[in-house]
Amino acid sequence: MVVSGVGVLDKSVAVLRSIAESPCNLNELCVKTGLPRATAHRLAMGLETHRLLVRNTAGQWCPGPALAELAAEATDTVREAAMMVLPRLREITGESVQLYRREGTQRICVAAMEPPTGLRDTVPVGAYLPMTAGSGAKVLLAWADPATQRTLLTDSAFGERTLLEIRRRGWAQSAGEREAGVASVSAPVRDAAGDVVAAISVSGPIDRMGRRPGSRWAADLLAAADAIHKRLLHA
């Protein structure tokens, strides 16, 4: 194993590598790494806090979702393409802009930019939001598989007819649906194969965006989504 000379880092990597080889309980982790029990426990618990490790049903540590998220960000061509387009969309709208992906029954913000001044709808990168409310959720669910739609629609603020309309129209809007006082409009982002892989959104206070933000920003949002798609065609 490569040694950096930074003791806590080297030990943490040793813990991660050992668990990546096979799930471990504390005793097994100590044997595999040669670390004292207290040290192995402290490091594993810290890595679990940061979601780099999780526990399986047997109570063993396994690689956590944050590892995949970090790897995805390093090679995420959709995010890279979006980051070339989001600044202009923010400039045009003067509002917060985001890019969302679906992860199971939730959506995660993988890219975001905020306006330099004024009241804003801040969604941190890495934040998980529900798939049951908000324009971004509507877009991602509109193009999700039927089983996922059936599962989520039972608790959603919208119904199947709304999803049909979104697929026909090509964008979604919401006002006060995910969060009181916040409006948003979203459009699907397609990869090089034409599959919907993300949702691009503009969000901000209802007082500025109105209760029908699509009438104001849908065209610009669709143009931004198409610009990302064209970049992916040549990625």
UniProtKB/TrEMBL annotation:
Q: Does the keyword Nucleotide-binding apply?
A: no
Tell me where in this chain the HTH iclR-type domain is found: 6-65
Cite the Pfam families for this sequence: HTH_IclR, IclR_C
> Keywords of this protein's UniProt record, alphabetized?
DNA-binding, Transcription, Transcription regulation
Q: Which residues form the IclR-ED domain?
A: 66-234
What InterPro entries is this protein classified in? Answer: GAF-like_dom_sf, HTH_MetabolicPath_Reg, Tscrpt_reg_IclR_C, Tscrpt_reg_IclR_N, WH-like_DNA-bd_sf, WH_DNA-bd_sf
Source organism, top-level taxon: Bacteria
Is Glycoprotein included in the keywords of this UniProt record?
Answer: no
What is the name attached to this protein's record? IclR family transcriptional regulator
